[in-house]
Each structure stands twice: as C-alpha cells, then as structure tokens.
Amino acid sequence: MNGRADFQEPSAEVPRPITHIGPDYIPTEEERRLFAECSDESFWFRSVPLAATSMLITQGLISKGILSSHPKYGSIPKLIFACIMGYFAGKLSYVKTCQEKFRNLENSPLGEALRLAQARRRSSPPGHYYQKSKYDSNVSGQSFGTSPAADNIEMLPHYEPIPFSSSVNESAPTGITDHIVQVKVNKYGDTWDE
C-alpha cells in the first residue's frame, strides 16, 4: 500500500443491506418516485374510469326505474356512493401492477422483499398457513429482511379432515334434557316453578 486508504467513489451507488421492512422503513429516492408514479397511474388509469363508469351505470339504473332515487336528494347519494366505490376499486385493482413495478426495481430493499415473498409463495405447496406471533422465538436469532407478512407466514402440516358423524348419539350434546321448567309469576313479582 502507498499509505492512502482506498475509498469508493462518492458517485458509486452502494446497495443498502436488506433490513426488516416495517412501519419505520424509509424508502429510497427511487422507491418514492415509484410510489408517486403508482399513485398517479392508479388514479388516472383505473380510479377515474371506474368511478365514471359506475356513476353512469348507476344513473342509468335510476333513470330506468331499477334503482329508486331519494325523495329529498334525488340520485345524488347513490351517485356519490358509486363514485367512491369505483375510486377504491380502481386503486385496489392497480396493486398487483404496482407490486410488479417494485419487484423489477434494482437495488431496492422493498423490491427485494417483494421478490423474496413471491419466491416463498411459489416454492411452497398449497396448504394451510398461520400467522406466527411476533413473540415466537427465532431459532437463528436473525431476520433476513423480508417483508413482515412473509416473515410471519409458516406452513402448517397438512392433516386429513376428520369425517363428521351425523349419528344422533355421537353429535348430540350431553347433559341437556327436554324437560321444560315452567315458572309462574304472580302480580307481586313472586315466582315459583311447577
């Protein structure tokens, strides 16, 4: 060595280590840009068209008499409801597309977490899942930085269902009789049974 420490160039992008993606996660600049892009695209390409279409269909149903209008407010409440439902349906319908965009993002901890979660879902056979408690012990003591949802899903062993017997003697509750106790009450509130 020549007495100088070798440093990386400041312009060289060093991928951040994958940390646990949780509520305190701070997205990278590229991830923030992609969040804004997904928000805009889901609004203009999904929410607006679905809201407008649902309002037109609702107004058509009201004008044909299939839906009734409010006596005081007319068709406005139903149109507002249709608009809100169309808006949220549009936002929800864009989630898979946005996830795919994040999966294709290079040097992104969030993209890496989504890729790992997708790989886990594809590699595991269809079965029963349960949510692991955050208090369960972690054998290795380490988290590998996948999403919280992917960290908390574990496979349960596949069990065959127990056949249900419809036999009266096996399925009837025990200790219950058909005897009905009649309680009489007089006008003073005194009770007795017969």
Automatic annotation (TrEMBL):
Residues 24-109 form the OCIA domain. Residues 121-141 are annotated as: Disordered. Pfam families: OCIA. Keywords: Endosome. It is found in: Endosome. Its main location: other. It comes from the Eukaryota. GO terms for cellular component: endosome. InterPro entries: OCAD1/2 (IPR040187), OCIA_dom (IPR009764). Belongs to the OCIAD1 family. PANTHER family: OCIA DOMAIN-CONTAINING PROTEIN 1, OVARIAN CARCINOMA IMMUNOREACTIVE ANTIGEN. Interacts with OCIAD2. Interacts with STAT3. This is OCIA domain-containing protein 1.
